[in-house]
Amino acid sequence: MTTPTEAPRTAWARIDLAALQHNLQIARQHAPASRLWAVIKADAYGHGALPVAAAIAAQADGLAVARVSEALALRAAGHQQPLLVLAGAVDGDELAAASRYRLQLAVHDHSQLALLRAAQAPLPGCWLKVDSGMHRLGFAPAEAAAIHAELGQLTGLPVGLMSHFACADDPADSATNRQLDCFAAATAGLDGPRSLANSAAILAHPASHADWIRPGIMLYGGAPLLAVAAAEHRLKPVMTLASRVIAVRPLAAGEAVGYGASWRSTKATRIAVIAIGYGDGYPRHAPSGTPVLINGQRYPLAGRVSMDLLTVAIGDAPISAGDEAILWGEGLPASEIAHCANTIDYALFCGVTARVARHYQQGQ
Ligand SMILES: *Cc1c(COP(=O)(O)O)cnc(C)c1O
Known about the structure:
- By secondary structure, the chain is α/β, with parallel strands linked by helices.
- It is built from 11 helices and 18 strands.
- Helices cover 27% and strands 22% of the residues.
- Helix 10 packs across helix 11 (345-351).
- The longest helix has 14 residues, at 17-30.
């Protein structure tokens, strides 16, 4: 991590903490009656869990991560707010750590129930996860009432009820309503707070908001819904991945560029070489033609992405070594690059490697 005064010279990610705070407010506006777990698993989707947590601590009601180790890192850094571990504890040591460091745990499997029966230590809260149709994690709907009662006895606390959607990113898909109905039937009459909505459901399924929403990708300005740009929801990009042009070279008609000579120019042009590659997390499978922003204009990637470099066809544009190039972020939505590379913006963000210095711009 670099401080704002030592701007990196190549391959950096600007992280706009004011945009992050703005996006969290958008989530709140969509679900004003709900409390909010800010999802900061996987190093806050590659944005840096500790700086992100610090920037949103005052705005979020709690922070959610996937693993106990991620929650412990937040506690070690001094974060005191409620923490939820979405996948729960995997063994007795994690359960003991969760008790000691006051982590709320999802409980999704009989193996976790067995750990809780064997443990003595109190938890600050637990959430029964119901499989309402995604068929990844969670108890069968028919078991929910009995397990809810047992968890209440084991913990002596109100037990939360949660589920997760498989298809919320497509508002036209009826699977989300079927999951909502399944969850409502499985949990009818049970006490405790409820939580279902990821970013897509926050935007497209108000009936899912319940007591706690769980926004992830929307906090980072990613596009939660298929076929809708993040900007249409007034979400702002948080990460801008950038580097510099380090060489500009002429290319004659018919000459190829890069490994495998996969791209060949049909006419004389110039090639800008940019100091970023798959070693930094830029997707190697981004094809020729994927846009790169240089001095505010889009130019097409030309030839294969290599580990440390990529090449762009710039024609006779006034570009020279030292100019900044934006790979995604401000002016070039990550979801667009994800679409070109046949992936999702979540994976682009998470894939930015440790070699890329994160450069934080402060919010208020
Ligand atoms: C990652 C995750 C979220 C956040 O999902 P987004 O699509 O990023 O908003 C919410 N709930 C659970 C259980 C998750 O694993």
